Amino acid sequence: MTADPADGPARAPEDTRAARPATAPPAVKAPPRGRGPGRLALALLAPGLLALLLTYALPLVWVVRMSLNESEEGGAIRQTLSAATFGHVLGSGHYWNVIGQTVELGVLVTFFTLLVSYPVALFLARTTSRWRSLLIALAVTPLLISSVARTFGWMAILGTQGVINKTLTGAGLIDSPLHLANNFTGVVIASTEIYMPFAILAMISGFGRLDPALEHAAASLGAPRRTVFRRIVLPLTLPGVLTAALLVFVLSLSGYVTPRLIGGGRVFVLATEIYDEAITALDWPVAAVLSMLLLAVFGVVITLYLRAQRALEARFTGPREAGS
Amino acid sequence: MPSQRPSQRLSSRPSARLSQRLSLRPALATAAVLTSTALLATACTSSATSPSGSSGGSGGKQTITFMGFYGTFQDAFTKTVIKPFEKANPDITVTYVPIQNSSEVLAKLRASTARPVADVALMDSSVAPTANKEKLFAPLDASKVPNLDRLVDSAKSKDGHGPAVTFDSLSILYNSKNVKKAPTSWNDLWNAEYKDKLAMPIADTRGVALIIALEKLLHADYKSDINPAIDKLKTLSSAVQTWQPSPDVYTAIQSGDADVAVGWNARGQYYKDSSGGVVQPVLPKEGTVTQVNTINLVNNSAHTAAAQKFIDYAIGAEAQKAFDDEAFYAPVNKDVQLAAETKERTQASAEQRKNQIPVDWNWLTTRYTDWVDRIKREVIGG
């Protein structure tokens, strides 16, 4: 984690650019600034920005405002500007447990998703088969089925009456069914499969640096396959892995459907807790505070991601990229 | 030192072209996915906010909007209450907006106070006092709702707001194919035969009702101390398979995922018929707890006269009998004589009326969140 700007490698790009002012004129880097194109760009962006403003920014402002209200008994909301609800939530061990379980679920799901998706993505990125496009399409077909349906599928597989338990008890391997669903284990297993297509797509698109020529070069210089993987393939694919990790982690942190359906009511994560506070307990200020906390967790994760990405770039490709 | 970007060289491979086209830059792809998710989420919440009913002059045809529960409730209510009402009042049309639960009604009305999205709304009696306090609902004009006089005492509103329109009760549900000894008492939930086969969706009103029932069994008073019931429930934790059966408790019992559960009687009775008797609801012998849905006039409704006419019809003897016989609720109107079968399958039976456990839902509104929190933290999480 060396993202300090004073650090050697991170400075490298600026140094090289400064050293060659003639070959890289600033006019090439920055597009010409005319009034016309600027207006056009703004006009083209306007619908999207407007939609985002209406559907994303404004509701977010509303949530921030709500988090500063207080709730009275019975779900009535007292309009005020106070940090009391924040204090109530942050002072409660229960909500810290919820945050802890949310992050724990995110970490576990991300780890397992990357573990099972990496070989698939690596194969898809490297294969020269004429079926390659079909295979990539196949890898993402699960996205055509809603995650609700897929979670129910996992319940049929993991439940006490499910395929796995029926098979194991039928074979006499276990006496009483394993508790694979309606708990944390079930959520981890189902989430892992549900986020695999996202991870595979993100990794394939992040594997751009992977070049068979480099592997051949390493092999021709006598590196065994394991070394080629460790020193060439793994470092070159890390940016893709990092992106996939971010994507899966963020999806898992905000995931509602899978913990709700297969968690058996035992898995308390931020998304389900926000729903419960808003819908069952009618405590909108607490729900809003929890939403803010979820956003804060996202902020931390994205900061870590950016730092890790910068460190990676600097370590493996940063200085070289800058020379192109 | 290579001067070309590897990705540029990659594109010389024919198969790589597709992957390039497919692959947005990772960060871009991430952003795209996140944005579309956010858009989707907000699109869902911003639907159904168009103002209610067309204000078709005072004399002409009027449309009032009614918010009621979705699914079988909607089917039964449309058939036995709305259709006959429209027939009797050709100048009024009722639009049914299905909702998931009372908090959804609360949210929609809070978001549309000036031009409300409904004229009449159902609401659970544990939520309704909050809506009354926030002036989302208006008091009724007793002269326009003459049937208010015909209500049983427990259906009347103390402050002139919307009265009860349905009485439901908490039941024990079981799967008759898997269960050898049918449960008859709340204590049977602790039966060793049902271990790991229990579905207990009690982190909501069902849990609140169950606490009240257990307090009676334990000779305690729910208004002063619910520790006895909470401690008793804690001893059930290890036997529970799921606290949140999916998609709902009735389907879980029907499919045999769970064998014994607690659930609402009316839906349980519906599933009993539709499953050919696989799902069996039982009203425990110690008595059960009533769940009340109130019917309310929305404040600032543009059709108060028609809305109150509709409310009056819904609590009237004719509509009550038709709806209760269809959907297995108990009547709120004194003049109703239910079919004998309906009586036996609801809290209107002689035995249940004798053992009815009284509940002060108005008082409970202030404790509801606290109780549900205790169930979640001490019983489920503990």
UniProtKB/TrEMBL annotation, chain B:
UniProt key word Signal: yes
Single GO MF descriptor: thiamine binding
Name assigned to this protein: Polyamine ABC transporter substrate-binding protein
Pfam families per record: SBP_bac_8 (PF13416)
InterPro entries in the cross-refs: SBP
Signal peptide range in chain numbering: 1-41
Single GO cellular component term: outer membrane-bounded periplasmic space
Keywords for this protein: Signal
UniProt superkingdom: Bacteria
